[in-house]
Amino acid sequence: MLFRQLFDPDTSTYTYLIADEETQTAVLVDTVIEQVARDLTLLQELGLSLRYCLETHVHADHITGAGLLRQHTGCTTVVPQGANVDCANEFLRDAQRLPLGKIDILAIATPGHTDSHMAYLVNDTHLLTGDALFIRGCGRTDFQSGDAGTLYDVVTQRLFQLPESTLVYPGHDYRGHTVSTIGEEKTWNPRFRDRSRTEFIQYMDQLNLPNPKKIMEAVPANEQCGQMVSSTA
């Protein structure tokens, strides 16, 4: 398996490139429209055919490059079941698997940050957590039908039940971290460690965070596969 972690410094967003080296087919997870040219160049350099653009959720802090990548490559755009994205080609439900050569991608429903968020477990070893679980943190729960209690339940009852050696690759990082493990997050993540469900809800309710800078343009654009904005890529 080829696995690459790519970064957008403006939004601190990670995009993941996963490819089956035998079939030379690839999936990009959580793309950023300003980085489409970078992603197309990397695909060409590695001799890969993009089969899927996959989203963990409808992003509020950046615009996806999925629609533009579909125009360039003919890839299939995939979003979680229940996401308000009519232009997507496919919708993944909980426990559904996405075929990519010999690579196994398992969808794990992880609502709470949004009401239709998915994490993806790749080959039972690499967990793409989107905004459900960050390294030493988690995504906010105060808009897009977020729910702190639901997020606590899915992280502690679903993600933290995976083997402790499972690698954690988040959708964002703001402190310079790139990868963690389930065991490490169970031990050191301050949002969850030694907090009951009630204490977690109280903590999240008191965050009082400002809205993401791009929320007014990003959410409607992402509900149109990123097609509401012009692109220079």
If you had to describe this structure to a student in words, what would you say it looks like?
This protein is α/β, with parallel strands linked by helices. Helices cover about 25% and strands about 25% of the residues. The protein contains six helices and twelve strands. Strands 1-2-3-4-5-6 form a six-stranded mixed sheet, with helices on one face. Strands 7-8-9-10-11-12 form a six-stranded mixed sheet. Strand 9 and strand 10 (about 125-130) form a beta hairpin. Helix 3 (about 150-155) crosses helix 5 (about 195-205). The longest helix has 11 residues, at about 35-45. The protein is globular. The two termini are about 30 Å apart. The mean pLDDT is about 95.
Summarize the structure.
The chain is α/β, with parallel strands linked by helices and 233 residues long.
Structural class: alpha/beta
Largest sheet: 6 strands, mixed
Radius of gyration: 17 Å
Helix and strand succession? EEEHEHEEEEEEHEEHHH
Integer average pLDDT: 95
The strand line-up of the biggest sheet is 1-2-3-4-5-6
Shape: globular
Total DSSP E strands: 12
Stretches where pLDDT is under 50 for at least 5 consecutive residues are none
Beta content comes to 25-35%
Work out the helix count: 6
| Distance N to C terminus | 28 Å
Percent helix range: 10-25%
Keywords: Metal-binding
Protein name: MBL fold metallo-hydrolase
Domain Metallo-beta-lactamase: 12-172
Organism: Candidatus Synechococcus calcipolaris G9
